[in-house]
Amino acid sequence: MTLKLPRIIGHRGAMGYAPENTIESVQTAAEMGVQWVELDVKLTKDDIPIIFHDETLERTTNGSGLVAQTLYEDIANLEAGSWFGDSFAGIKIPTLEEMCEALIHLDLGLNLEIKPCPGREKETAEVALDHLSRIWDNHDNLLISSFSHVSLETAMEMAADWRRGLLIDEWPENWKDLADYLQVSVLNINGNECTREQVEAIIDMDYPILAYTINDPQRARILQSWGVDGVFTDVPDIIQESLLTIH
Ligand code: G3P
Ligand code: MG
What we know:
single chain, 247 residues, alpha/beta, 9 helices, 34% helix, 18% strand, binds SN-glycerol-3-phosphate, binds magnesium ion
């Protein structure tokens, strides 16, 4: 299994141009020539894995309350496009399964970020991987990542050979031990906060690096010059253009 990391990963699809974490967003990313997208998965109250970022429904839907307290049948009735723009009215929150079908059809690679609601770190990984194992065959273009060490540990126990990425925001002192223990293939770092020294320390340990969330072409070029392998971006067309110019 070779994981060939892309230089550009569409963040939540292409969230600069379409409502994040929706089928329309990954279609938009594909139209821009992106080869991989990053999406967030979490569980409804009745354990259905859905593609959704926030713990609460308010920001991106016409619903309200906690995702963890809402049944899928109620989530399925929500509208998740109008907040972004009138032309997206009527868009639904996809299940993990619906999203995977769309991604496979579009031939897109997936970095699935396990984004558990608090206290659901283990079960979110369990359910997401269980669903994925029935849908996703090509492990050359699948990366599981999380900020949650419990979620990553669960993923490791369930499917040791699936590629994992350790998401880092605040730089933990023990990042090497964590990466080693969780047997990750890549470190996914905050590309707007990281220093050159941090990037070089990771490269010294032979880990590939993905950096989030880079919407500034100049920052993308700097990170690339430091040796970062790929960036997550809301605006793939802009970053793509800027990175291509130096090749
Ligand atoms: O996976 C990279 C990035 O998506 C992590 O932060 O909050 O956008 O999910 P967030
Ligand atoms: Mg994410």
